[in-house]
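Structure in, sequence out. Go:
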């Protein structure tokens, strides 16, 4: 920035959040910042019936993401501490990128009541992500911010519904394939409490809703993104 190397650069942001991040530094060149969402690869959509054959003995939630403050695992653990009369299991998958933060999360885990069980599995190979998601009843993701959230598309594609913060571009699904909840502790406690008390039949309906949402929207996102991206590059040629 000091020597002006960016003067002839055009920026491609994947969301309005990324747009404002760039604009903070290069406000003078805001007309050169364009927005086009990320392309999603052609995810394999599994048969939802295969993912829900086993009876639900204990409600299983999953957190699958990098272990960093931005992904907000500590918030989820604090929420779980407030749950009453509900037995559930939390599985954590992710690369530990902040050891100090993970140490804090382990402290929070040690303070959880006996009705909450936590298992840590480290990272998952990309080709195994959908299989992992399909084993759980709910993906809990109280992220502090995502430009897109590729892991969200993977969970939906596996037929695993999502409890998501309001810090992403994703919207509520009326059939609860995705439920958006602001980062308010009581609202998250209440939401997880309701999910954990769902009947097997209701949970099956929400799994199908997540699967349908993925099938309907992933390809729509790609179509719009291609149009946006082509338009941007055509404008740059002028």
């Amino acid at each position: 920035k000091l020597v002006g190397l960016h003067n002839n650069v055009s920026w491609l942001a994947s969301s309005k959040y990324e747009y404002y991040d760039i604009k903070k530094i290069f406000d003078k060149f805001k007309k050169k910042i364009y927005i086009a969402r990320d392309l999603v690869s052609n995810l394999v959509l599994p048969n939802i019936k295969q993912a829900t054959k086993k009876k639900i003995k204990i409600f299983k939630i999953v957190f699958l993401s990098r272990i960093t403050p931005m992904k907000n695992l500590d918030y989820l653990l604090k929420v779980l501490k407030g749950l009453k009369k509900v037995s559930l299991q939390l599985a954590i998958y992710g690369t530990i990128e902040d050891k100090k933060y993970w140490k804090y999360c382990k402290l929070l885990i040690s303070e959880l009541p006996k009705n909450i069980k936590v298992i840590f599995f480290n990272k998952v190979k990309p080709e195994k992500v959908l299989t992992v998601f399909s084993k759980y009843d709910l993906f809990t993701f109280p992220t502090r911010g995502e430009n897109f959230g590729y892991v969200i598309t993977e969970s939906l594609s596996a037929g695993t519904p999502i409890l998501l913060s309001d810090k992403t571009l994703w919207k509520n699904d009326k059939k609860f394939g995705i439920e958006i909840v602001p980062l308010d502790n009581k609202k998250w406690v209440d939401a997880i409490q309701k999910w954990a008390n769902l009947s097997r039949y209701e949970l099956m309906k929400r799994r199908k809703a997540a699967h349908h949402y993925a099938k309907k929207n992933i390809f729509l996102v790609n179509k719009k993104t291609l149009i946006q991206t082509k338009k941007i590059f055509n404008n740059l040629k002028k």
